[in-house]
Structure formats: C-alpha cells, structure tokens
Amino acid sequence: MSAALLSYAPLSPISAPSESTRFLLPTHHKRLRLSSLTRYRPGLKLGTSRPLTLRCSSTMHQSSTPSSCSQDSLFYSRAFWVSRSIIAWNVGAGEGECYLYASRNAALCVADGEIQGHDVKIKLEQTNYGLSQQVVEKFPHIRDYTAFEVPATMNCQSLVKCQLAVAIFNSDGRCASATGLQLPGILDELFSYTGPLGAVCDTEAVSLYLWAPTAQAVRALIYKSPSETDPVEIVQLKELKGVWSAKGPRHWEGCYYVYEVSVYHHSTLRIEKCVSNDPYARGLSADGKRTLLVNLVSDDVKPEGWDNLQDEKPDLLSFSDISLYELHVRDFSANDPTVPHEFQGGYLAFTLQDSAGVKHLKRLSSAGITHVHLLPTFQFAGVEDEKHKWKHVDIEKLNSFPPDSEEQQALITAIQNEDGYNWGYNPVIWGVPKGSYASNANGPCRIIEFRKMVQALNRIGLRVVLDVVYNHINASGHFDDFSVLDKIVPGYYLRRNADGGIEHSTCVNNTASEHFMVERLILDDLKCWAVHFKIDGFRFDLMGHIMKRTMVKAKSLLNSLSKDKNGVDGPSIYIYGEGWDFGEVANNGRGINASQFNLFGSGIGSFNDRIRDALLGGSPFGHPLHQGFVTGLYLEPNGHDLGDKANVERMLAVSKDHIQVGMAANLKDFVLTNCDGEEVKGSEVFLHDRKPVGYASSPIETVNYVSAHDNETLFDIISLKTPKDISVEERCRMNHLATSVIALSQGIPFFHSGDEMLRSKSIDRDSYNSGDWFNRLDFSYNSNNWGVGLPPKEKNEWNWPLIKPRLADPSYKPQKSHILAAVENFSNLMQIRYSSPLFRLRTANSIQERVRFHNTGPSWIPGLIVMSIEDGHPGVPGLSQLDPIYSYIVVIINPDPTDVSFANPALRARSLQLHPIQMNSTDDVVKNSTYDASSGCFNVPARTTSVFVEPR
C-alpha cells in the first residue's frame, strides 16, 4: 500500500499556476491509491439488520466521551481491558458504580436503564493510582483513562470468549453510560504464545495449530481439491491456552482446508461462524478460497539446485554496496513480445535468458545494480488469480486515439477492477506467493515458480527484495471473503481508535504490531520468506506505522539466520522502508514507531524524501508546477509564481543544502557549510516546518531516491515542471542529471524501473490500478510510453488542463535515440559508482573525513554542486587508503542551461582527469568537461554531471 510517498510541503507558499487555475492538491498525508478498495472489496459489509455504520469508520466518532446508555452504545468499544487486573475507561472519577457484564451467547442489551441478557455481572472498583507505566507504554493513547480493578477471582480466560460490556450507573441506579471492550491487552498478557502455528508436516502426521483465544469452537474443513463442494473430513480442534489444534494423517498433505471459527464479533454483536483461511497459510487455492496443506521443505516444491542457491548468490561485502532497482512483476514482461504469451506478466518470465527484459536486467547487473526490489508478490486482492476471468481492452482501439484523448483512460478504468493489473498493496495472506503471477493458481505451482524466479535473478547477479505490507490488510469483519485475521480473533489484529472503530490512516484496516501476536505473525512471515524463498531483503511499506521494537526484532531475527542452520546468510539480508510519521502513530502516539528519526542508530534504512523534493521541487502534495533543483528552479522559470527573484534564488540555495546533506548520506552529524556561510550539521539544516533534513547515523540508514512507483515517473514530472519551450533533449539531460545525483551520493541509491529508459505513464500520478496500458515498459527501447492518453480521471482530472497540452505536443515525446542514450547514461553512472569504493563509504566517520562540498556559502555560483572525496596514501599519516586506483574524486553537478566555470584554490595542482567511463561514452557533451590544474578551474557543460578522478 504504498501510497504517495509522504513528504513535506513546498519551500514557499503556493500561488495560482500561470497555465491553469485548476490543479491537484491532495490534503491527505498518506497514500491515496487504495481508497478505491472500499468500492469493489469493502473491508466491512453492511448487509445485516444491525446498525453497523456506527463503527465502520475511524473518523466517524472522534469523541471518546461516554455515550448515553442505549443499545447503540454497545456498538462502540470505548473501554480497554489492558491487563489481567485493569480495565481502562475514559470516564470521570466518582461518576458512579461500574460493572462488567458478560454473555456467552451475545445477548447483552440495554433496556429500562439496565444491562440485560448477561450471564455474569461483576462490580469493578475504581483505583486511586491510575494506569501503570507498563500499560501506558503499550497504550500511550489512553494514558489519562480511569483505571478499574478486576477481581482476582474472575476466570478471565473464559470471559474473553463472551460478549463483554462495562456500564456506569447513576446514584439512582440507572445506567448512565455503557460500552464494549477492546481486548488486546489482556489477550497479550494471558495468551501470548511462541509454539508452532499453521500446518506442521512431519513423517507421520499433519498437525494444525490456530491461535484463537476468543473463539468458542473451531473446526477444520478438509477438501480433496480446491473446487469440490463438500469436505471429505470435518475435524473439531481442541483448545489449550488459546491455541486450537488437531492432528491428522500424512495424506492430508496436498489437500485444502478452511477454518470455521465460532466467535463473538464486535462488528455485529453476535456469535458468528466465520469461515477463514489459516493466517499462517503457506499455500492457497485460486483467489485464496482455501488453504493448501503444503510442506515447503519437500523436494516436490523445489526447483533443481534450490538447496544450493545460497552458494550461487552474488557477493555482497557491505550494505553500502547495495543499489536498488524497483520493479513490478507484471510490468516486467506483460508487454514484452520476446516472452512467450503463457509466461507474460508472471514469475517464469524472469527465467528466460534471451528475452529483451532479461537482457536489460543483465545489463543493469553488469553495470552495478545489486538488488531487484519486487512490488508486492504475496496474495493480494484486486486481481483474480485465474486469468480466464480477466477483462481486456482492444489494444488497436487504444492506439487509434490521440495522445491527449480521454478515451484511453475511460476504457481502462471501465475494467480496472476486473483486469490483470494492480500494484498489490492490498494484502490478503502475507505468506503465500500471489497466484495470478503463476501459470496455475492452484496447487504448489506458485511456490515452485516463485522460487525459480528468485533462482534466475540470483544467477544473473541480482539479489531479490520483497515489498512487504504489514501495516494494513485488505479486509475486515466476519463476512468478507478476503477477511482473515479479523475473523480469527476479531478486534485484535487491527488497530482501533478510542471508539473501537478501525484506524484507516494507511488506507484501510491498519494492523497493530504493538500487539504481541501481530508482531509474532510479522516476524514469522519474514523468516518464512527468508528461509524458504531465500529472499535477500525486505522493503517495508509505510514502515512508520510499525513499531520500532518490531523492526529491531525483525533485523535481529534475520541477522541470526545462518547458512549451516537455515540455508541462508542472514547477515546479508537488508531491510528498509517508508519511515513516514503520520496518522494515529504520529509522534509515538501508539508507542515508539519506526519513523525516520526514531530509526537513528538501528541500521535500518528509510527513504530520504528530502533529496527527492529538493531535486524535483515542492512535494507530491504541492503544486505540480513547483520547480526544483533539476527542473529549472530560478535558472529556467516556468512561469509559476514562487515570489520575487531573491526569494526564488533563496529557494534554490536551500534546495542545494538539502541535496548536499542527502549526498552525504543524510547524516545527522555531517558538518557542512550552508548557504549562509555557517558551519552546520545535517540536523541543523531545516525543512520549511523546522524539521531537520539530516536524521541518519550511518550511510546504510539512508535510501536516496528521486522517483518510485508512487507519483509521476521522473521523466513525467520533469516534463510537467519544466518550461514548455525547451527541447526534449534538454528534458532528457535533466532526467540524467537527477539520476546522477542519486547514483553518486553516499548511502543506498534506489531507482524506479524505467527511469533509465525515460519511462512515462502519460503523467499518471498514481498508476496502481491503471492497467498495463499506462504502466507499460518497453525493453526494445522503441517507446517510453509517453502520450498514450490523458491519465485516469480519478487521481488526475484536476491536472488535465496542465497535462493535455503537453501530451498533445509531439516535441515532448522522446525518440529511440534519446532512450538509448538514457540507458547508456544510467549504465555509465552505475559503473562510475562501482569504479571506486569512495562512492560507497561504510561509516559516518569516513564520510565526514573524506567528503567535502565546495561552492558553498553566500558567494556561490547558483545551483552548482561541487563534491570532492579524498582517499589516503600508503605510509602517509591521516586517511587510510580504500581505493587502489583513484586517490581523489571531484563530482560537479551543473543544473544550469549554460556552461559553468568554477575555480577553487583547494582543488589546484591535482592530476585530475575526466572519468574514463565518461571519456569513452557516446555523450559528446560531457566530453567537453575540462580541468586546469594551474588554476584549479573546472568547466562543466550545461545540465551535466562531470566526474573527475585522480589516478594513483
């Protein structure tokens, strides 16, 4: 669910655009693309006679004050059973007597000022000491609630299986307020469990284990096939301390099953019979209707040579050597004519040696890219697993429309929820490969083919990163086919607000990693992917919505895996994610979360939005014409009003400071001279809201990027923000320039697939469900997909007045020669990065000692960035020698539309020369870069990054 990558506002106030007064200005600090999920696969079903709308939205009922004592009040869960002995409720001290009620048959009701239908009624005593520090740390959002003591004689294990409510009574004995309870606190205290879960296969039996402490009964329905109607066996599971289990014969392996869980569900106030998959499923039938009983260690589900794959993985000496290439499985081959039709859009496309796409990946690998980051590949909603159910659009018809037509998007959106495309940020089951990418969604095929994909990528020199989405799930409630966790233990896995409504700040159905068994499920899932699928890294979607404790445990768990014991090298597994701090978790609202600032010193990477926004201008939530460092800010205005000349020049200077901090790995303590001539740390360079730019403790904690799957592609955003009268060649050079900053920075570089080919999505800002048409990749390099129609109306209509004239103008569209030049430029930049370890320094101290920025302070050449990296010499005190080839490197980034000369006495009398890779490139412009040793003067062409090296 990554949604538009959260960012900060522009550096200056926004005024009306010169071209149009209608523009997109999102107001949500979250990804926006999943809001449509509730239209075609709602998380909550409202098809009962009960007034379920009372609690289906986390924004409906913000007040947590006691409601009147009515039947509707039981639909809220405003009290928290936080520990064995304490219930917390936001009621005033001394309001009256408080009672806890329980009904095993869910018969509680409010009538005549009383709570009726209960089996148990227990008086609760208000405490004088409030909530304990331990409770407040776990539930900081209720720190000020009143604490009520639960009698020690109560059988809590039995009570949690009931419908529960608490009520306060007036002095006249009438009910003043009543509400249901949230149970995660007591469930964690009484039922935290570390034993086996899921299906466990051994030589003689198959055992099932399900954690469901609130369930009253659990049955497993066993099926021989994915489609037969009647189960061949129905097994009653037995409970021990909240875990339900059963043992069956060995021949169950290869069968399918679902659980039938009888459990009280707070969303309906009833005991429901919920039919669900196993949360620990490792295999599924098509569309996740049933769980496949599969043994992942069986030779039957392993490709040839699978057990020895760790020995074939490309070397990785340090996380600082990583470079990431983000790719969607379907994008990779859905439109590649060199891939057989039956392989297109799936796992097996990666196993071909001679397809255009694989040849491109080989080229990237040879240039230096180390990891392919795959967008979600777990079982997600939004795409049917069985391909014959997909709907298609006539490609010839789409091709017949003009480049700025509304027709393409209308045809695409008409079937967008019934085609084969979705990014996949709508999880159903975390631990099973997505069936639509396999040649057969039933049986073990998806497991085998996924493993073949990993094996094939490793063998061409690329490690594999999975995009994991643990911050939310697709569906909730007792009814939805795609609801799993909320059927097994209702109200536990999902994060709820003070009224009991599910939090939706991540899009839908936020999960609660602060709860023990949610955290455990996340950790177990990571281990499964690492051990059984030999995954080399994990990118955490909306990582800031996960607790820091969970992320640190995840890192420790993965680091503990060994080749001898687990068949994988755990210390080589890298984790990173989106450290945005918003929603109910903002400012540690639910505990210390995994946000950018909180991850300092953890060794976990987070995306650096600061360098992105400074390079491109504004933010994804700002005005689309707001320019930045590479899009012409100050140097080539596009007519959008950003204030007077002095203000715009100041904005460029501040952007340059942000970029330089980013190029120094966004280190909190890196010292540089800012645009005012002051020596400051990275944490003393500020965003518009006074938040620090620098926040990392080491280079591996910073993932630098300028574009990703979210928001417009790099080429599209450049085409949108730059003046309309410049040439496509100039826009291409801006694309190269932005890429060069990321490629040559300290920290870990991240690239969106296709940026190296000038990829366009026809200026679609959110293509998660825009089909193959707007997401096409062309590895023949014939087209970059520019001008294939106005992007889908839902997320782009307000920008259509800006987009339409650009798409209609044929001068905007790159030719094949431009695309080939971009591919070569990217390849050259990566080769330069890997030509010297000085571009990949491993510690903060090394960066502080060796990296310097020149052209700083108030007497600067506008926009020009000059960075030097120094190495030591054998036998000379001071710096150690890291690079056997080059002793000194100077990188000069010139965003100006004209050539620039820069002289610095500190750079005189060196034996610097243009990097041989640039000297031997086909880019005749960069070859005009010069250095004069006597004056220390460099001349760099317009919109060019030049790298000068001093050979030993």
From TrEMBL:
GO terms for biological process: carbohydrate metabolic process. Residues 781-950 form the Alpha-1,6-glucosidases pullulanase-type C-terminal domain. Pfam families: CBM_48, Pullul_strch_C, Pullulanase_N2. One of its GO terms (molecular function) is pullulanase activity. Residues 196-281 form the Glycoside hydrolase family 13 N-terminal domain. InterPro entries: GH, Glyco_hydro_13_N, Glyco_hydro_b, Ig-like_fold, Ig_E-set, Pullul_strch, Pullul_strch_C, Pullulanase_N2. CDD domains: AmyAc_Pullulanase_LD-like, E_set_Pullulanase. It comes from the Eukaryota. Coiled coil: none annotated. Residues 77-189 form the Pullulanase N2 domain. This is Pullulanase 1, chloroplastic isoform X1. It comes from Nicotiana sylvestris (Wood tobacco).
